[in-house]
Design brief:
This protein has about 100 residues and is an all-alpha fold. Helix content is about 75%, strand content about 0%.
Length: about 100
């Protein structure tokens, strides 16, 4: 004999279809937002002529350039991903 309650199987099947909870890291715009923030940090040092920029100008210019290019690339990827999801959702709802 088992000590399992017959109602437990009903509860288990009720929660089987649910996906794990979403986190902010699941959002496709999370990485681009971080990259834009870091690029802005380097850009702010350049624009304000901060001491860090005066000491290491090439580091700040390089960081700004690399992070800006990466931010543009990942922003484009996130936009395309959202469009694809939206199109898939509209295709499945039309059927």
């Amino acid at each position: 004999m088992t000590d399992q309650d017959p109602n437990d199987s009903e509860l288990d099947s009720e929660y089987d279809d649910e996906a794990p909870a979403a986190t902010p890291f699941d959002n496709p715009y999370f990485l681009p937002a971080v990259l834009w923030g870091l690029a802005a940090w380097f850009g702010f040092d350049i624009v304000t002529n901060a001491q860090a920029y005066q000491d290491y100008p090439n580091f700040n210019r390089g960081g700004f350039g690399v992070l800006s290019v990466a931010a543009i690339y990942f922003t484009r990827s996130a936009i395309l991903e959202k469009r694809a999801l939206r199109e898939n959702d509209s295709d499945t709802s039309a059927e």
